[in-house]
Amino acid sequence: MIDVMNGKATPDSFVDGEAMMEQALEIYRELGDKGGEGNLLWGLGSFHYFAADAGTAETWYRRSLDLHREAGDRTMEAWSLHMLALALAGQRNWDEARSTGRHALRHFYEAGDVAGVTLVIDDLAIVALGDEDIVRAARLWGAARHLQQVTGTGLADYVEQTNTLFGVQTPYTVMTDDRFAEEAAVGAAFALDELVAYALEVERGTVGMSHEEPA
Questions:
Q1: Of 90, 79, 145, which Cα lies nearest the Cα of 116?
Q2: Residue 68 and residue 109: Cα distance in Å, rounded?
Q3: Which long-range contacts (CB under 8 A, 24 or more apart) does 23-31 make?
């Protein structure tokens, strides 16, 4: 049950919520609804992700990704890739988190989904920090905050907050204030297509799914 006095979920509510999702999953499977099944798997992945269990979340996100691809749902494929990248980053699997995040970025960019781009740019800022490329991390962080401001989404801060579940650092914790502000400003000044090319480490104007990353 939910503690309505403080707005927090109790342990019982988490157990109940997971049980309900598993029941719904069985119904979708009986109906043969691949898209619905994929959504429930994504939800179960998120349940475990926000319980700070990145390894279990990864398993569910991979299954969700397969089903969304089978159903031809490019939007949920991108969201599955995004959350899979975060689960991989939570486990410090930086190489696969990078390729998965870049794959998600291509999907969101080609769909014109700037909110999705904002999220994944921040995913990749965290990955860059894991790669010990702090300049790239700060620039991507600044770019994500700029997109957040101009779109009013607030999504970049959301990604940063969820990473605290796994003790993942953010760029401003590892740079001097002046240096961080300087590099973040460089990222904030990128045009959208320039930013995406920078995040993917490709030439500007060559972004496309024909060059997509493996996942």
A1: 79
A2: 18
A3: none
Give the range among 6-10, 20-24, 121-125, 168-172 with minimum mean pLDDT: 6-10
> Can you give the pTM of this predicted structure?
0.85
Element (H, E) at 3: strand 2-3
- CA–CA gap between residue 64 and residue 39 (Å, rounded): 7
Q: What are phi and psi of 3, to 5 degrees?
A: -80, 95
Structure token pair of residue 51: 């319980």
**Angstrom distance (rounded) from CA 29 to CA 25:** 6
Record the tokens describing residue 170, joined without a space: 């953010």
**Which residue has better confidence, 197 or 209?**
197
Q: Give the separation between CA 152 and CA 159, rounded to whole angstroms.
A: 15
Amino acid at 131: D
- Tens of pLDDT, residue by residue over 39-84, are 889 999 999 998 899 999 999 999 999 999 998 999 999 999 999 9
| DSSP notation for 129-179 | HHTT-HHHHHHHHHHHHHHHHHHT--HHHHHHHHHGGGT---GGGSS-HHH
Nearest to 209 by CA among 69, 102, 125, 80: 102
What is the arithmetic mean of pLDDT over 78-100?
Answer: 96
Q: What is the DSSP letter of 173?
A: G
Determine contact, residues 125/144, Cβ cutoff 8 Å: yes
Going from the C-alpha of 71 to that of each of 158, 198, 212, the distances in angstroms are 28, 31, 19
